[in-house]
Amino acid sequence: MSSLQPVRGTHDLFGDDMRRHREVLNIGREVANRFGYDEIITPIFEKTEVFKRTLGDTSDVVTKEMYTFSTKGGDEITLRPENTAGVARAFMSNGLSQQLPVKFFYGGPMFRHERPQKGRQRQFHQAGVELLGVDKPQGDVEIISLGVHFLKELGVYENTTLELNTLGDVESRQAYRTALIEYFSAFKDQLSEDSLSRLDKNPLRILDSKDEGDRKLVADAPVFSDYLNDLSKDFFAQVKSGLDALGISYEINPRLVRGLDYYCHTAFEFTTTALGAQGTVLAGGRYDGLIKTMGGPITPGVGWASGVERLAMLMTRQVAEPRPVVIIPMGEAAESRAQVLADKLRYAAYRVEVGFSGNLKKRLNRANKQNACAAIIMGDDELAANSATLRDLSSGEQELVKLDALADKLTVYR
Q1: N or C: which end of the chain has fewer CB within 10 A?
Q2: CATH code for 15-169+229-314?
Q3: Binding site annotation covers 84?
Q4: Annotation-wise, does 130 bind a ligand?
Q5: Was 112 annotated as part of a binding site?
Q6: Any known ligand binding at 262?
Q7: Residues of the chain with CATH 3.30.930.10
Q8: What is the pLDDT of residues 355-377, one digit of tens each?
Q9: Domain limits, CATH 3.40.50.800, in the chain
Q10: 263 belongs to an annotated ligand binding site
Q11: What is the pLDDT of residue 107?
Q12: What is the annotated signal peptide range for this record (predicted)?
């Protein structure tokens, strides 16, 4: 085995893992397209400011997890830790504010320097959607419905729970922020170092703390619902009503929050226990203040992102490649003809392998190991008749078929 191994937190994708990974992205792309979402591919790296503005200078992602470096030209750039900021930057850079609403689907690698664990790597992949320009609750309902369709198509929806909460509008959020600061200030001597640093700047993030001491304090902290104004209550009621109309079940989780000020109203997560400890496989919410935070026009937005690796692990069905057809040329004359025939069949959309070495028995055994559906055997006798022997590798039956008729004869194996 080579001494050269992947960098910690990265892995190679091939075989069944690659097939499931590709299936997640393909289904995400297809489902998003049904909802009218176009695909976007943003650069894998952006100017660091893009993420510092959107994720906050004090967030763990910015302070501990981003891969940031300077270019030869002196620019500070960062490998993207998530893709919403990149989509928002693309929205601004390309002057799309005149084309609202804008709907995008994306899929690709993200990078965070965190402890590798099951379903979570330092280079990981996300699929996500963003809806910009819709300020009504119907936008939130559409985004969540898209997520439900996606999870159902993957066959994993039944293993997830939709958790839902509201963050209210700016006024409600400010009232709740004040209440949290007042509550946690009485326990400064018990807060973890991270939570203490967040108390004045971003108290909502204390509610996300994993520290056991913090979690005990959080259990008795004020709940957001007590600080919602009528506008926020009505917005959330319409979101719930829309989900009810679609038959989408959910659980209200009053502790589900987003720490940054540009988030508002709906927050949601699809969680599962099927991978061990409870984990999130798809999460999102409304972020009406994001574009403005980045220096653009006030633009409502809502979206979600999902972990491709985690979703691929949840999938139970096999994702099979089309079974190949194997051409077995016996003799020099047949080898050149085999290449021509393989090319013709590939243009006809068949998956074709050519077995060049070994005796006939070994080549047929290899074809079976490749899970081939049929073998096309070409020897001198067959070529003299401008034909080939077509063998069904499931039944063992075979027949002599004219070369020109092979493509049509193979349609039963599609």
Answers
A1: N
A2: 3.30.930.10
A3: yes
A4: yes
A5: yes
A6: yes
A7: 15-169+229-314
A8: 888 899 999 999 999 999 999 99
A9: 325-413
A10: yes
A11: 98
A12: none
